Each structure stands twice: as structure tokens, then as C-alpha cells.
From TrEMBL:
Gene3D superfamilies reported in the protein's UniProt record: TolB, C-terminal domain
The name this protein goes by in its record: Phytase
Pfam families the UniProt entry points to: Phytase (PF02333)
UniProtKB keywords: Signal
Species whose genome carries this gene: Flavobacterium frigidarium
Length: 350
């Protein structure tokens, strides 16, 4: 009986995988690398640029489980380090030069859903520097942190974490925390802002911050992508833009920003159930920086992508114009040469 049940389960899994693979278009962009599989459930990647040698940059990815963690991959997709065990880490983002004990430390920050906290790790060694975590959404009934984006303010290099949750009220769905030394060489977080409209349609998970433009983008799933100012000192919680409505098959999910210059580039948003990415101009439409026309839909090898990241930094070889990294079902992350993505954009312009 056990053998029959096992065979039945394997058949169901094979059928499910087959159906998913069938949804990937034949002309889909192929990855340069598919990273080593993680044990449980990949969710979100972030790219750390090695300041000494960019060819030794690292991809940080989450393994979303009660026995999960952060994993570091080299550019060949090989696992080179795992963090301490974490209780369902969801999304992750990276910032450079957080001051601790008078020294600059690059950090990866992830949400830890089952402990209602965010966790901070030094890079590239993935060592915890948060004294066990920073509690978020304290005093709220709805907590369960999921999404995170890090903002570095140009004027003073202060670093802020923008945190989203599984559920929350419109107007204060996201909370923003200033990250700083607690005086003892570990990181503390201070709530400086509560903001963010919410449609109530599904949830808000993917959050991306554009440091140079000083803006926050987040996916209000099955509704659209919302835009806000990133600097809490502006005291402006008004919504700057809402775009992508009607562009997606189901969920609008992971957001990546590719920066061609200080102000120009592309916003890529996962069209999750279509296994494609929708591309918008980072600078907005000509004459209107808060209007975002769809430029192109790019089919990729990823299955139901939750999270993505991009960089234009020269990482060497086929990655001379940077790379695009996206999560895929199957416990993996797919690494693409940016050039293969740019080809689709260029073709759409003709």
C-alpha cells in the first residue's frame, strides 16, 4: 500500500511539474546558471557587489521554512555559505556601509515571519549582528513580516528598512525603520514612518527601493504597483503612482530595478502565473515621471517567480553589462546575463 501511495504521489508531482513547464514559452530567456537547490522553498534573491573584485560578488537567497535560512551563492550558482537557522525568512535586501562600532558594514536584512522580526547579517560572511532580531509591527494584531526593501539616504547615508506584512490596514500597511548601532555594536531599529495604501485584493510582499531616485515601489498583488517617496524626512505619505493595472495574468510579484544610469533604466515585475516579466521605464514616461507605460513582456525560464533582483555592474565575462536573478519553483534561483534580457527590450523598441 505504501508503495502504491508513493507512486501516486510521484505521479501527481510529475504531472504538476509537467503542467508548469508547459507554461514556459519555447522562446523564453534561458539562464546562464541555475543555482544549487535549497532544502525547502526559495523565495527572494538579492545581489551583493564585492567592492574589491566584482567578479566575486555574491547572491543572497532565502529558504522559506521553519528550518530555513539565508544562503550565499557565487556567480556560478554554488552555495558558499548558510546563515544560522531562521524561522521562515521571506524576502531579503542588501545595503552598504551601515556604521557599527565606527566601521562600515555591508548588510543583508531579511524578514523572519514566525518571530515577527527582521534579522540583520553582515556581508559577505552572513554573521548575525542584530542580537537575535528586531521586533516589527509591535502592538499590532496583524504582524507576520514578509516583504523588505532597504533605503540609503544620499544626504547622510542613513539606512532604513521598509517592511511589509502578510496582512495589514490600508494607509499603514508598511512600516519604516531606521537601522543604527545600539551603542554596543549590534543593530537596532526605530520606527520612523507608517504608510502604504492597500487594495485588499490579496497581499503586499515585493518591495523595491530606488536609492538614486529616492522612491519605493511595491506590489499590491492582483491590483498594481504603487510608488512612494522613500525619505521619511519628507513627511509625505501621498501615493505618487499606481501602475501595471490590467497587465498581469494573476499576481504582480517580485520587483527588480536595472539602473542604466543614475536616473534611467528598467523596472521588471514578475507576472507570476504567466512565467514572464513585465518591463517598465525606470524614469517613467517622457514628461511624466509618475506614468509607467509597459515596454515589453519577457518570457523567462522561471516558474511562478516570487522575487528578483538586477544589477548593471560589470561582473566579468558574459556578465559585463550585469545580471538578472530570479527565484523559480523547484527550489532554485536562475541567473541571467543582462544582455539576454536587453535583447527583448531592444526588439520591442524596433
Amino acid at each position: 500500500m505504501k508503495k502504491i501511495l508513493l507512486l501516486a504521489t510521484l505521479c501527481l508531482v510529475a504531472t504538476s511539474c509537467g503542467n508548469q513547464l508547459a507554461a514556459v514559452r519555447k522562446d523564453a530567456v534561458k539562464p546562464m546558471v541555475i543555482a544549487q537547490q535549497l532544502p525547502h522553498d526559495t523565495d527572494d534573491p538579492a545581489i551583493w557587489i564585492n567592492p574589491v573584485d566584482a567578479t566575486k560578488s555574491v547572491i543572497i537567497g532565502t529558504d522559506k521554512d521553519s528550518d530555513g535560512g539565508l544562503y550565499a551563492f557565487d556567480l556560478n550558482g554554488k552555495i558558499i555559505k548558510k546563515s544560522i537557522p531562521l524561522k521562515r525568512p521571506n524576502n531579503v535586501d542588501i545595503a552598504y556601509g551601515l556604521i557599527l562600532n565606527g566601521k562600515k558594514v555591508d548588510v543583508a536584512v531579511t524578514t523572519e515571519r514566525e518571530t515577527n522580526s527582521i534579522r540583520i547579517f553582515s556581508l559577505p560572511d552572513l554573521e548575525p549582528i542584530d542580537n537575535g532580531g528586531i521586533a516589527v509591527f509591535e502592538g499590532e494584531t496583524l504582524r507576520a513580516p514578509m516583504g523588505i526593501g532597504l533605503y540609503t539616504r544620499a544626504t547622510d547615508q542613513a539606512i532604513f528598512a521598509v517592511v511589509g506584512r502578510k496582512e495589514g490596514p490600508s494607509g499603514s500597511y508598511l512600516w519604516q525603520y531606521k537601522l543604527q548601532d545600539n551603542g554596543q555594536g549590534t543593530v537596532m531599529g526605530e520606527v520612523v514612518r507608517k504608510f502604504g495604501n492597500y487594495s485588499g485584493t490579496k497581499e503586499i510582499e515585493a518591495i523595491a527601493v530606488d536609492n538614486e531616485l529616492g522612491t519605493i515601489l511595491y506590489s499590491d498583488e492582483q491590483f498594481g504597483i504603487r510608488k512612494y517617496w522613500a525619505d521619511p524626512a519628507k513627511n509625505d505619505n501621498s501615493e505618487l503612482a499606481l501602475f501595471g493595472k490590467g497587465d498581469f495574468k494573476g499576481d504582480n510579484e517580485g520587483i527588480a530595478i536595472y539602473k542604466k544610469s543614475a536616473t534611467e533604466g528598467y523596472i521588471l515585475v514578475s507576472n507570476q502565473q504567466a512565467n514572464t516579466f513585465m518591463v517598465y521605464p525606470r524614469e517613467g514616461a517622457k514628461g511624466d515621471s509618475n506614468s509607467y507605460p509597459l515596454l515589453v513582456e519577457i518570457p523567462t525560464s522561471t516558474i511562478e517567480c516570487d522575487g528578483a533582483d538586477a544589477t548593471a555592474v560589470n561582473l566579468g565575462g558574459a556578465l559585463k553589462n550585469g545580471m538578472f536573478v530570479a527565484m523559480s519553483n523547484g527550489l532554485t534561483f536562475h541567473f541571467y546575463s543582462w544582455d539576454t534580457m536587453q535583447q527583448w527590450i531592444d526588439k520591442a523598441k524596433k
